[in-house]
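Explain this record to help learners:
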Amino acid sequence: MSIETLLVIILILLLIGAVPSWPYSRGWGYGPSGALGVILIVVIIILLLRGGI
C-alpha cells in the first residue's frame, strides 16, 4: 500500500467522522466535512494527474 493510498483512506475516514449527523457534531454545521471533502478532492486530482492511483 502506497503512502498516497493511505492518505486517501485516512481523509475518507476523517470525512465520515466530520459529517454532522451525531449529536456532538451537529453544532459544527457543514464546515468541517466540506473542508475535508475539498481536501480529499484536491488530493485525488493530484494523484490522478501524477498517475498515483
Notes: Residues 8 and 44 are 7 Å apart (CA to CA). The mean pLDDT is 79. Residues 3-50 form one domain. The chain has one domain: 3-50.
